[in-house]
Design goal:
Length: 259
């Protein structure tokens, strides 16, 4: 179905639980407990894929979605700069793109990818909230300077960047480690993308929005730069909630027997 809303696992083996939950493509995961009854502020609710694009109801980003004007900082900072983003920033400096590197610095310092927070809950239950990369971000810009920034934003949030073919023409070759992180495409509005970063005219945005809306599968967000020139990083990551029954008698006893 591709909804990615909830997933449950019953097992007494910690390694099995870790392996299964790491592979589960779902927004809410329940370990050794039932899959219903999410509590606001304890198990923030909202799925991946066709279940919605977020933010999770009751999660730390939910209120921001309701504000007409939002502060630039989200309060979610992982302090774990993705390695690809570090390599990209170094490449910008080494190739003389110092202004682009300076503009990217706030995104690198405030990346929300890789955040882990333990949320309050009842005794015998552990609720973990985390953020992860969405996947592939399509970068569409009206000039090369803006495209360089979009690529940096994608990498800073742990995502890969997909750019139109020949968009980087005239620039020095990218470092080899970035070959799997910055990719070219001849079909900008197609392929397996998770979100779009756009910079251009209102008419161009309208035309792109129509094409993206006509795609099958999960809803794909289109994000534009804020007046400050920064992109909303919080919408470029996915949220996940894992609720674990830690009580000795937790879970379905019959299912646990085969765990």
């Amino acid at each position: 179905m591709g909804t990615g809303q909830t997933f449950g696992v019953h097992s007494r083996i910690d390694e099995t639980i870790a392996q299964v939950t790491a592979q589960a493509n779902a927004g809410n995961i329940y370990v050794n407990r039932n899959l219903i009854g999410a509590v606001v502020g304890v198990q923030p609710f909202g799925g991946h894929g066709l279940s919605g694009t977020g933010p999770k109801a009751g999660g730390p980003l939910y209120l921001r979605r309701l504000l007409a004007t939002r502060p630039a900082e989200t309060g979610l900072v992982s302090n774990q700069m993705p390695e690809a983003a570090r390599i990209w920033a170094d490449w910008l400096v080494q190739t003389g793109q110092k202004d682009a590197a300076a503009r990217l610095a706030p995104e690198l310092a405030n990346t929300p990818v890789g955040v882990e927070i333990e949320l309050p809950g009842p005794a015998g239950e552990r609720n973990m909230y985390s953020t992860e990369a969405r996947g592939v971000l399509l970068c569409i810009a009206s000039n090369q300077d803006e495209l360089l920034h979009q690529i940096g934003v994608a990498l800073a949030t742990g995502n890969r960047a997909l750019v139109p073919v020949r968009a980087l023409l005239g620039l020095p070759p990218l470092p080899a480690p970035l070959s799997k992180w910055v990719m070219e495409t001849s079909n900008p509005d197609g392929g397996n993308i998770s979100a779009v970063l756009f910079h251009g005219s209102p008419s161009g945005l309208q035309a792109l929005s129509r094409k993206i809306a006509d795609r099958t599968g999960p809803i794909v967000q289109i994000q534009i730069a804020q007046p400050s020139g920064r992109y909303p990083l919080e919408w470029l990551v996915q949220e996940r909630s894992v609720s674990t029954n830690t009580a000795a008698a937790g879970g379905n006893a019959n299912l646990l027997m085969i765990g």
